[in-house]
Design goal:
By secondary structure, this protein is an all-beta fold. Helix content is about 5%, strand content about 45%. The chain folds into two domains: about 110 residues; about 35 residues, no CATH class. Strands 1, 4, 5, 7 and 8 form a five-stranded mixed β-sheet that branches. It has a three-stranded antiparallel β-sheet with strand order 2-3-6. A three-stranded mixed β-sheet has the order 11-12-13, with no helix packed on it.
Length: about 180
């Protein structure tokens, strides 16, 4: 496991659940082909940091064997099942995240109280929330219960590995409306 070469973007959002969850999507680059299992590795603190920002290392498993020497895009995401308002303890809110790579560091921040009103919510129609069982054209049934969710915009570069524990939600890049929900 090594840090990736560079972090190119960090998206931080809230998933509307009770309590709300924090969702992080990070894009970066690696120097060759063949990198696997990109992930965000959290830093652990003895006491909460003064700036209220959670640090992560953006890491992946380095390739073995023959590789192509080319800059390749890689994506990692994490969902933190913790209320951002009480992240560091009662009434101690998370102010953002900082992602570290070999060559740089990027931050994304939010005010949890303000952003909670604009949290990601999944709706089929009027005020009818999508139930846990979703039927789509590509998957007869996609049960999102207990799955890691990957939320992305149409056209984003995605990891191609199939994961039975993952639900995918595709958003329109201009309107942020749900285009498709699928598992895998």
């Amino acid at each position: 496991m090594q840090r990736v070469l560079e972090v190119t973007s960090v998206d931080l959002s809230l998933v509307k659940t009770k309590p709300p969850q924090i969702h992080i999507v990070t894009h970066g680059t690696v120097p060759t082909s063949g990198w696997k299992h990109p992930r965000l590795s959290p830093w652990f603190y003895i006491r909460p940091p003064d700036d209220g920002i959670q640090d992560f290392d953006f890491v992946a498993d380095a390739p073995t064997g023959i590789v192509l020497p080319m800059i390749t895009t890689i994506v990692a995401e994490a969902t933190i099942p913790r209320d951002p308002e009480d992240y560091w303890g009662p009434a101690k809110a998370l102010r953002g995240v900082r992602i570290h790579a070999r060559g740089n560091t990027k931050e994304a921040s939010f005010n949890a109280a303000e952003d909670l009103a604009q949290a990601i919510s999944l709706f089929r129609g009027d005020d009818d929330p999508i139930p846990w069982l979703i039927v789509t054209a590509t998957a007869a049934d996609c049960d999102l219960t207990g799955k890691v969710l990957r939320v992305y915009h149409t056209g984003d570069v995605l990891e191609t590995g199939y994961r039975t524990d993952r639900g995918n939600i595709e958003l329109d890049p201009t309107t942020d409306r749900v285009v498709r929900v699928w598992c895998g």
